[in-house]
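Support request, please re-run this one:
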Amino acid sequence: MKQNQFSGRVSRRDFLKLTGGGLLAAGGLGLLRKYLSPESVAFAQIDPPDKIFAATDGWMYLPPLPTPSPFHPDDLSPDPSLFTTYIFGFRDVTGMTDEQILNQKMKAQHSAPMFWIDEDQTFRLELRNLGLQMRPDLTDAHTVHFHGFKNAIPFFDGEPSSSVSVPMNRAFTYVYRPHDPGTYMFHCHVEDVEHVQMGMTGLVFIRPAQNGNTSLYPSGKYVFNDGDGSTGYDREFGMMLTEMWVDSHWSDSHIQLPEWSDYKPDFSMINGRVYPDTIAPKGQGFDTNGDLIAPAGFPNLQYQPISSLVECNAGDRVLLRFANLGFMQASMTLEGIQMRVVGKDATYLNNGGIDLSYLTNTVVIHAGESVDAIFTAPPHSGGSGPDTYLLYNRNFTMSHSIGDFGVGKQMTEIRVHPAGTLSAQTEPNT
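Re-run finished. Output below.
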């Protein structure tokens, strides 16, 4: 990679701001010219980022529509048997070399990588804009906007009219120090109707300072600083709800302009997949070139690595983190198990000691909202294998049905194993 791309050093503009006319007045013109030359020595980055995301384009898979469509699968796909739909997206490229990062062009992920931050801890997220390989005519900038984030200063907010957006072949580091635990979502806020629909969305959450206190709940894991263990849980699963209107994706790949007033989603997804792909295994990490390794037995899901399958032991308390960045309402129903909603839009449902949480088997989530819901896994039936419960969107007007119940829809499974079968969870969605 060339020296002046994606460096962590002080920018030339920053340098000029810092030095002003001082260098020139002191006879430092030669030093200034040396700094501005491509051969100048890179400054060390004092505080390296905790995460590095790359913004680019790519391809993903969705099953055939029930009726033939000229837009799906996209006839420009490099392999329609594996990839059907053109997308924009983010990739986690933390720890990769500059060469590996550049090689991730055209390898976007849907939905974006999930990440989390500890309350009151400084977190740095660097965004690198690799450009759109399929559409080099689109010189789109990108941002990372925390939707609903309560304490973002304008400079790091990601809303481009009041903060910085990242041009092609450039990088910017966002700095956060969050004070409000709960579940959020993030997305690109440049031409956000298009970029959100194209796939630049993901789930992020803030872990409370109370985490690690095992005196309130044995696992030491909590949704909020409840003080009594009422939001304690054993396992957690992120459920990023989005939609897909294939006409708009075809239009972007074919250099056309979609008519957004005609919006009618063809697919409704959880973590970038539709059922039964939602219950396929998670991706297997990265290869030596930094590319994603497809889930075992599912080469078509290479760029959709996040599984939505919920596996737990009988008696476990399971946290479901819902976030809806589609454009339509979702009504997520868990058949046979009640959920307790303990948070809404990253806000603890407790007002000065008055418990506002509630039990339900259907959580209604409007566009742009998040919900934290906990259920206790029921006793195992005693039969062979786990007991299976369905979690699905009852708003079936959002998408089609390809055959059997739930196929091609926003649905996944809860699998309850006998107590003690599964070891403790180390990361979400595992």
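The helical segments are 12-19, 22-25, 29-36, 98-102, 192-198, 246-253. Confidence is low (pLDDT under 50) at residues 1-5, 7-45.
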